[in-house]
Design a protein that fits this description.
Structural class: alpha/beta
Helix content: 25-40%
Distance between the termini: 6 Å
Low-confidence stretches: 388-392
CATH class of the largest domain: Alpha Beta
Number of strands: 15
Order of helices and strands: EHEHEHEHEHEEEEEHHEHEHHEHHEEHHH
Number of domains: 2
Length: about 400
């Protein structure tokens, strides 16, 4: 009799309270592998100052809320962080450290999202460590510039940057064999709803995000802020409404005012989509998504495609997505439309509005064909070299 395959999904949930979209990006892997019959452990980490009794209560409460909402109480752990002396303390929540190490040792894959978990004892216990790159370009450019080495200590390298290693992509491969993978979506968690043509074209995003622009080989690669400014006049060019659940710093008040004067409705993402259920409701209440990417994704021709956009498609919500090179791998034209400039964006929005039912059906069909977690994760596990489960 063969044991069930097992996987550890390591990433940052606790450190981003209220960022339901980020939590969903990791949950697609956790819940998706569960659907395939794998034993799954969600592993997170929070830093604390030496001598502090507990991690940040808000971060712990957010992590617990996600774990409880999806029945992961027996399959999730929150480490105390890199500041904790090795092996001296049990996790903030979850199994004992000894039991945690046993589960890591038994796992066929240790999927480390953006290399977030750096606990040396935990990583050393893993048989097959896979770096999962969901922010393509940043880590590669940092390493090429000698600023960081995020990929060290891993055995395989997967990325949602579908263009890495292809002609025209400016992201250095660093001599690593990159495994391209689409963002998975668990289809029964994002069921198709009837079209909502009266709704707005929406998105849930950050203005700048956690990383700064990068100077590399004489070129400056920007953020979403720099791209959104290019499409400031989109509301005036179409008959559609546009609404962003936008995380934007008070220091960017001038940009916020410009967006609102141009006709963009801005909502607080924590109130509009601040938990997993609200995130799904926000998407389902939309006519479709207007997906504007980070400048680095666009300018490097990374091939990045958003996990959020995959959720819109699965919900039967058409997506109008900025071109990053993704259309070389994913069909566009019905349900999912690409654009590179303001004219193309306006035309794509009007095309969706002209036949919302057809584009809604095509959106769901695309999700089923290309983003279904069953197929995406089975392929990823195979290409990442999952070890065969031990016989019992």
């Amino acid at each position: 009799m063969s044991a069930r395959a097992a996987v550890v999904i390591a990433g940052a949930v606790a450190r981003r309270p209220g960022r339901a979209g980020h939590a969903w990006a990791l949950l697609q892997y956790v819940l998706g592998f569960r659907r395939l019959g794998w034993d799954v452990l969600l592993l997170d980490s929070v830093d604390r100052a030496p001598g502090d009794a507990i991690a940040d209560p808000g971060e712990v409460a957010w992590f617990r809320s996600i774990v409880e909402a999806f029945g992961l109480e027996a399959d999730a752990a929150l480490l105390r962080g890199a500041t904790e002396p090795k092996g001296q303390d049990d996790p903030v929540c979850g199994p004992t450290r000894r039991r945690l190490l046993e589960r890591v040792e038994a796992a066929d894959l240790f999927v480390n999202v953006m290399g977030y978990v750096r606990d040396e004892e935990i990583l050393s216990a893993a048989r097959r460590r896979v770096f999962l790159d969901i922010d393509p370009g940043f880590g590669q450019l940092w390493q090429d510039l000698g600023l960081a080495r995020p990929f060290d200590g891993h055995d395989a390298y997967a990325t949602v940057g579908l263009g890495l290693g292809t002609p025209g992509c400016a992201i250095p491969t660093l001599g690593l064999a990159w495994i391209p993978t689409l963002p998975p979506v668990v289809l029964d968690r994002f069921r198709a709803a009837d079209p909502s043509p009266a709704g707005a074209f929406t998105s849930i995003c950050t203005w700048r995000g956690p990383f700064a622009p990068i100077e590399h080989r004489g070129r400056r690669y920007g953020l979403r802020a720099h791209q959104l400014r290019r499409f400031l006049d989109l509301p005036a060019r179409t008959t559609a409404r546009f609404e962003l659940a936008l995380e934007i710093d008070p220091a960017d008040a001038a940009d916020r005012a410009r967006l609102e004067r141009a006709g963009w409705v801005l909502r607080d993402p924590l109130s509009a989509a601040g938990d997993p259920s609200a995130y799904r409701r926000f998407i389902r209440g939309s006519a479709g998504e207007i997906g504007i990417a980070k400048g680095l994704y666009v300018e490097t021709r990374s091939g990045w495609f958003s996990d959020r956009s995959a959720c819109y498609l699965a919900s039967g919500r058409p997506v109008v997505a900025q071109e990053t090179g993704w259309s070389a791998r994913i069909p566009s034209g019905e349900g999912l439309l690409s654009f590179t400039d303001l004219d193309e964006a306006a035309a794509a929005v009007e095309a969706v509005r002209s036949d919302p039912g057809r584009h809604a059906r095509a959106a769901r069909a695309l999700a089923e064909c290309h983003f279904d977690s069953d197929a995406v994760l089975a392929s990823l596990a195979d290409r990442a070299g999952a070890c065969a489960p031990a016989s019992t």
